[in-house]
Amino acid sequence: MSRKALVLAITALSASLGALSAQAAPGDGPHRDVITLSATGSAEVSRDTIQLVFSTTKEGSDAGQVQAQLKQALDAALTEARKIAKPGGQVEVQTGNFSLYPRYAQQAKNAGPQITGWQGSAELMVEGKDITAISQLSGRIASMSIARVGYGLSREAREKLESEVTAQAIERFKLKAADYARQFGYKNWQLGEVSVNADQAVPPMPMMAAPRFKAAMAGADESLPVEAGKATVSATVSGSVLLSK
């Protein structure tokens, strides 16, 4: 290659690099700023599940006898509860705590505590979406008393509502982004990193102590009065938005 041709090639390469450098200059591209924001959607829904915890306590001088009494009471309650059991989360039955422990007392001076008797307890839990059937069961179990009552939201109801409140939160996020962009004097906005979280904002109603209630006293057809109340399901969208002029 001649010296003249080499000089021309170097000149052309320098011009090309200069053009690329000019295109990459930060001042020539669209100016962008970043803001972070969040939006929430929520809705109330009636709790659609109930849980009843039945329990009984027995005591006596013989551990085997106390255990047999507990088993007898639990078997009788299970027999009634299984009559209304339904699949698909409608009515589920399961045994709960079953415990037996000694009672101690000081028998003589300088002597250690001695076992003077035995005490035990047993529980049965019935829960599901068939609130009517479960509440009526309380009037048919005579061997155990209602210890606690609780209400909650089924997975199906929660997931259905989560879809609705998530869409609501996303729409509110977009409206906020557009509004903030306008107020800050920007023409356009673009999503950056965004997270979506849906949850039951209000936890299931805690298990509450219930008045001791037995069919022998209340009548075989009497059911427990129930009022499930409301639960709130919410979804939150949070993240960054890129603003451009």
Tell me what the structure shows:
By secondary structure, the chain is of the alpha+beta class. It has a domain at 49-153 and 207-227: Alpha-Beta Plaits (2-Layer Sandwich), CATH 3.30.70. It is built from 5 helices and 8 strands. A 5-stranded antiparallel beta sheet has the order 3-4-2-5-7, with helices on one face. A 3-stranded antiparallel beta sheet has the order 1-8-6. The longest helix is centred in the C-terminal third of the chain and has 29 residues, at 155-183. The two termini are 50 Å apart. Mean pLDDT is 81; it is low at 2-27 and 201-220.
What is the average per-residue confidence, as pLDDT, rounded to a whole number? Answer: 81
Quantity of strands, as a count: 8
Q: What oligomeric state do the depicted chains represent?
A: single chain
**Can you tell me the CATH topology of the domain at 49-153 and 207-227?**
Alpha-Beta Plaits
CATH class of the domain at 49-153 and 207-227: Alpha Beta
The spatial strand order of the largest sheet comes to: 3-4-2-5-7
Given helix and strand content, the structural type is: alpha+beta
User: Hey, roughly how much beta strand do the residues contain?
Assistant: 35-45%
Going by CATH, the architecture of the domain at 49-153 and 207-227 would be 2-Layer Sandwich
Please write the string of helix (H) and strand (E) elements.
Answer: HEEHEEHEHEEHE
Question: What's the Cα radius of gyration?
Answer: 35 Å
The shape is elongated
* Contiguous runs where pLDDT drops below 50 for at least 5 residues: 2-27, 201-220
Largest beta-sheet characterization: 5 strands, antiparallel
Number of helices: 5
Relative helix content: 25-40%
What is the terminal-to-terminal distance? Answer: 50 Å
